[in-house]
């Protein structure tokens, strides 16, 4: 799981710097769930499902990528509690967590009073 997610974020970061329109990634359920959140938050335009891969469509504003000013991806499993999440939320624009309710943002986790494993942080 972690390898496929880290590979997806690496592909996005590397290809957005060259102002490409899209990038291909493996079609894995966890990646699709993360992409749905990124679409909802306005970081990417969308994604297309192909036979054996996903094509991620980038979003630009004034010829600069909208997503990933600074992204921190944790290669280790790092659990964060609800209380610590409340303190940490002001430093980041978006924190994606893997919780008992699935993959959710930090604001949803605070609403449900949940902790979880950090997938990535975007500032």
Question: Care to describe what's here?
Answer:
The longest helix has 15 residues. The relative contact order is 0.17. Strands 6, 7, 8, 9 and 10 form a five-stranded antiparallel sheet that branches. Strands 1-3-2 form a three-stranded antiparallel sheet, with helices on one face. The chain has 123 residues and is α+β, with helices and mostly antiparallel strands. A hairpin with a 2-residue loop joins β8 and β9. The radius of gyration is 14 Å and the shape is globular. The model has no long low-confidence stretch (mean pLDDT 83). It contains four helices and ten strands, in the order αβαββββββαββαβ.
Helix content: 25-40%
Q: What is the CA–CA distance across the termini?
A: 23 Å
Proportion in β-strands: 25-35%
Number of distinct beta strands: 10
What profile does the largest beta sheet have? 5 strands, antiparallel
Structural class: alpha+beta
Q: Note the total helix count.
A: 4
SSE string: HEHEEEEEEHEEHE
Tell the overall outline.
Answer: globular
Q: Rg from C-alpha positions?
A: 14 Å
Low-confidence stretches: none
Mean pLDDT: 83
């Amino acid at each position: 799981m972690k390898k496929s997610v880290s590979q997806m974020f690496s592909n996005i970061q590397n290809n957005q710097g060259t102002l490409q329109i899209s990038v291909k990634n493996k079609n894995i359920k966890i990646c699709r769930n993360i992409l749905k959140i990124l679409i909802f938050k306005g970081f990417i335009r969308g994604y297309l499902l192909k036979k054996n891969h996903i094509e991620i469509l980038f979003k630009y504003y004034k010829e600069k990528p909208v997503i990933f000013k600074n992204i921190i991806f944790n290669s280790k499993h790092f659990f964060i509690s609800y209380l610590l999440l409340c303190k940490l939320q002001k430093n980041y624009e978006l924190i994606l967590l893997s919780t008992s309710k699935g993959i959710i943002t930090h604001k949803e986790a605070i609403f449900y009073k949940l902790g979880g494993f950090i997938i990535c942080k975007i500032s």
